[in-house]
Design brief:
Helices cover about 45% and strands about 15% of the residues. The chain has about 200 residues and is an alpha+beta fold. The longest helix is centred in the N-terminal third of the chain and has 15 residues. It has one domain: Beta Polymerase, domain 2 (2-Layer Sandwich). It starts with a helix and ends with a helix.
């Protein structure tokens, strides 16, 4: 049975598609689609747009029936470029933006976000949402990890995805991460995830 939250997410995807704003499923639901099941109460969709566009998206979604919308603007200390929370019928969908123009390295986040969105396809039968592919989902985790805690949650999530998908080769992951500017991060992660003897 499809969770009701997917209905809200599909409505948002339809509205965003009509506005010319690509989005795709990330977070715990995308991890579950790639074999790592973890309890969660919300659903995350990735965006990669400028702050003015993010504000436009928030205004656009406020016009949908039965939802409340809250925009959290980006912080220069955060790799993310702001979040739009959309609540409806007790469900929460977070639109997570990967383009943070307030950061000096904003081009890296933009490149990673755009690469992840290009990789997304419909994946789960009965669900119209596009889902970021496995190598790019790991790349998003590596981009958002807390550098002060290299074995923290993002690293742990990326390792769970690697362990659950033995068909994902190191070279495929290196190629995907290198294409979006994350080669040093993925090399460090692979040393952590696959320690030598």
């Amino acid at each position: 049975m499809i969770e009701p939250i997917f209905g809200l997410a599909e409505r948002l995807q339809t509205a965003l598609d009509a506005a010319g704003v690509p989005c795709a499923l990330i977070g715990a639901h995308a991890m579950a689609a790639h074999g790592v099941v973890r309890a969660t109460s919300d659903l995350d969709l990735a965006l990669c747009i400028s702050l003015p566009e993010l504000r436009r998206v928030a205004t656009l979604l406020e016009a949908l029936d039965g939802v409340t919308v809250e925009l959290s603007p980006p912080d220069p200390s955060d790799p993310l470029g702001g979040v739009v929370n959309v609540e409806g019928a007790g469900d929460l969908v977070q639109l997570v933006n990967f383009y943070n123009s307030t950061r000096a390295d904003h081009e890296l986040g933009q490149k990673i976000g755009e690469g992840a969105l290009r990789s997304a396809t419909a994946f789960v039968p009965g669900v119209a949402l596009r889902i970021v592919d496995l190598p790019h989902l790991v790349a998003l985790k590596l981009y958002s990890w807390d550098r002060s805690a290299p074995a923290g949650k993002s690293y742990a999530d990326a390792k769970l995805l690697l362990d659950a998908n033995p068909g994902l080769t190191d070279q495929t992951l290196l190629d995907a991460c290198n294409a979006v500017g994350l080669r040093p991060e993925v090399e460090a992660f692979l040393r952590f995830a696959r320690p030598g003897p």
